[in-house]
Protein: Probable cytosol aminopeptidase
Organism: Allosaccharopolyspora coralli
Amino acid sequence: MTTPKLNLTDTAAAKLTVDALVVGTVQGSDGPELAVGAERVASAFSGDLGKVLSTLGATGKADEVVKLPAGDGLRADVLLAVGLGKPDANGQIGAEAVRRASGAAARSLAGVSHAATTLSALDLSAAVQGTVMGAYTFTAYKSDKGDDPVSKVDFVVDSAKDDTNKSALKGATAIGKAVTTARDLINTPPNDLFPASFAERAAELGKTAGLHVEVLDDDDLRKGGYGGVLGVGGGSTRTPRLVRMRHKGTKGSKKVALVGKGITFDTGGISIKPAANMEDMTSDMSGAAAIVASMVLAAELNFPLEITATIPMAENMPSGTAYRPGDVLTMYGGKTVEVLNTDAEGRLILADALVRACEDEPDYLVETATLTGAQLVALGTRTPGVLGSEEFRDRVASLSQGVGEGGWAMPMPEELRGELDSKLADLANITGNRWGGMLAAGVFLGEFVAEDVQWAHIDIAGPAWNTKGAWGYTGKGGTGVPVRTIGAVLADIAENG
Ligand code: BES
Ligand code: MN
Ligand code: ZN
């Protein structure tokens, strides 16, 4: 992962000597309109820029990129007009539109050395985040790496010395980079990223960021009684791990626990998955990747919070040592679970982690996981489901919408608890039917969260992994969702308690 060099500039856009200059277009009622920030570019352009763009076929719709020679009036070589879509109900262009357009522009700028953007006139932070995320590529396993990402981007602002602008650049860069850190982990194939190597990479990232890191190996897990992680991880020759990372904020600050599902590959185990698309299960550690990246972000932005991450890592494989349907596992903390399907493994490793996380007596607990196919059925590929304590769940969902990740609150209907009753253990790991699978998984997790802890579970089965074409700032593969949601939740707790 290489991030472009990012700078603020208060030189007028028309006077910038760059390879490419980015302007925004808005989908107006009769054709494309130039966005705020493009005025001075348009007035210096030799010709009617709006008319030229329209003749070139531009409409201003999201993800549209139109390039043209910048001509005599400007010092740039090429103008890149990127669509922001339609204004919202209030006639405004929202931050997420700026993020996506900046991402689409950054993707289209691959191979270019020096670009400048006027999208920063709409929203500097969003333009920076979108640029960092959109410029991301993962070519570690390609012999021919293709064009390099754009190497330098200048953001046009009123004042480059202004402290608010400087801190916006710093904060937005850190958030964008955290997303790419998560993507790198997710995109690494499962033969290279398995529990031990994942734990090692997490420890390295954490220590570099100044976090305290502890890695429990399988011996430690046995001594500690982590029956869920050991049960799920037992089928693989690559033994499981549990990583703990700590950011020590100021004394007396709020305590936050973070937990993420780290299944480095999910075959389903003995309840094996069909072959079609099984390769997508390389992304089954996306929750864990998001938590590692969020911890690095927390250290970098030095949130005044005490944050502890508990990250279980295992590979779910079928073998002679694998756990079976019918097994009863004794989880960390002593609850017993009857395994009725070894493919419902995420909740088993998370159960151990949640109980361990609650021993630290956090005020809040945020957990995220590629937990259920039912999330995709209910909410589609891009909308995370948010479950948990009602008030905190709604707060997390609302913050998620605010940062453009679109988390949506989902209920945990009481009657589902009975469906998890087991004939011989405290509970079973699945219900006897396929209805409300995302909700049932949430109810299962809730059994392992201490009563007095405000908690939220974010199901990212769809949103974590993009199997379709690139759009906005999202390429193929790992998306980094919900790093920005967690970043926003931590910032909000730091500010409002
Ligand atoms: N990792 C999967 C969930 C998943 C499915 C993630 C599709 C991303 C895309 C999880 O471990 C799983 O297999 N869940 C089962 C649970 C079922 C057996 C109750 C599912 O959703 O089918
Ligand atoms: Mn599974
Ligand atoms: Zn899984």
